[in-house]
Write a structure and sequence with these properties.
Strand content: under 5%
Strand order of the largest sheet: 1-2
Number of strands: 2
Radius of gyration: 22 Å
Helix content: 40-55%
Distance between the termini: 31 Å
Low-confidence stretches: 1-35
Order of helices and strands: HHHHHHHHHEHHEHHHH
Mean pLDDT: 91
Length: 332
């Protein structure tokens, strides 16, 4: 929160009672906005065990399937880009409610909902009715990065859960894998994220897998791709749409279950799996940043943490807004 500068001594003495009134106004303003701020200490008293509970489930889930770490990070990203980080993505469709799961960027693609259910169950046993699904997802995303070898950071919490979702928002706000650099930059800017944040956050693709339907056009039609790499990916992704659409390939050619900077090294070698990946190193404004991450993993880690914290700050519901869902898949 940005506090107004205090008045000078001369100003206070000459304004008489007005100075007291101004001070009272500032106090009231601060009280009105403090509930709208996230804090790393939000659960310090109400649920100090939340972090151990989340980490325990995430360690087990990733031990069972290492890809799950990337899936949870992606859930957080797709959630925050629609209505802010409010767990709207976790809501199931019903006869009277359209959620975001069936939107084009999510349908048949986002996964890990059952892991979030398990985390929620574990947290509820520790402190029932206290921790939101939105915060659980934010903490689980951080833990996923750390468990797979990436940087650690203190997660800001205090979010509440939405009672709404936006199918159209999911279709319009989440960058598709066919995006060019200008479109990527614009979609991130719409969420208050800079081009620098965007390039750093794209590094999450150092873990995880992508479906053939999302990289087919790049490996068959684009020219800014290493020929041998393209042929390797074509071997598991038929040219014909509808054939092998769900076949998977690693986003990071070298170490898809370790969080490090190889993703950027791949881009410099024209071995980005998605069109949108390779756009970050394609003779444009972001080339230098990509290049810097290839030589300094610590710089990437630092910028990634900054980007994740900023993304987690996107229009959260706080205070008396929203609710603390009992079940992450439906409103109370």
């Amino acid at each position: 929160m940005i506090m107004a500068p205090s008045a000078s001594p001369a100003r206070r003495s000459s304004s008489c009672g007005g100075g007291i009134a101004l001070l009272l106004l500032l106090v009231l303003m601060a009280a009105g906005t403090s509930s709208a701020q996230l804090s790393t200490s939000f659960y310090y008293s109400s649920c100090p065990g939340v972090y151990d509970a989340v980490k325990s489930v995430m360690k087990s889930a990733i031990a069972s399937e290492q890809r799950m770490g990337a899936s949870i990070v992606r859930l957080f990203f797709h959630d925050c880009f629609v209505q802010g980080c409010d767990a709207s993505l976790l809501l199931d469709d019903t006869a009277s409610f359209q959620g975001e799961k069936m939107a084009t960027p999510n349908n048949g693609s986002v996964r890990g909902f059952e892991v979030i259910d398990a985390v929620k169950s574990a947290v509820e046993k520790v402190c029932p009715g206290v921790v939101s699904c939105a915060d659980i997802l934010a903490i689980a995303a951080r833990d996923s990065v750390v468990i797979l070898g990436g940087p650690n950071w203190d997660v800001k919490v205090g979010r509440r859960d939405s009672t709404t979702a936006s199918f159209s928002g999911a279709n319009n706000n989440i960058p598709p894998p066919t995006s060019g650099l200008a479109n990527l930059t614009s979609l991130f800017a719409a969420q208050g994220l800079s081009q620098k944040d965007m390039v750093a956050l794209a590094g999450a693709h150092t873990i995880g897998q992508a479906r053939c339907t999302n990289f087919r056009a790049h490996v068959y039609n684009d020219t800014n791709i290493d020929g041998t790499f393209a042929r390797t990916r074509q071997s598991g992704c038929p040219r014909t749409s509808g054939s092998g659409d769900n076949n998977l390939a690693p986003l990071d050619l070298q170490t898809p279950t370790v969080f490090e900077n190889n993703y950027y090294k791949n881009l410099v070698c024209k071995k980005g799996l998605l069109h949108s990946d390779q756009e970050l190193f394609n003779g444009g404004a972001t080339d230098a940043q990509v290049q810097s991450y290839t030589s300094s993993q610590s710089t990437f880690f630092s910028d990634f943490v900054t980007g994740m914290i900023k993304m987690g700050d996107i229009t959260p519901l706080t205070g008396s807004n929203g609710q603390i869902r009992k079940n992450c898949r439906r409103v109370n």
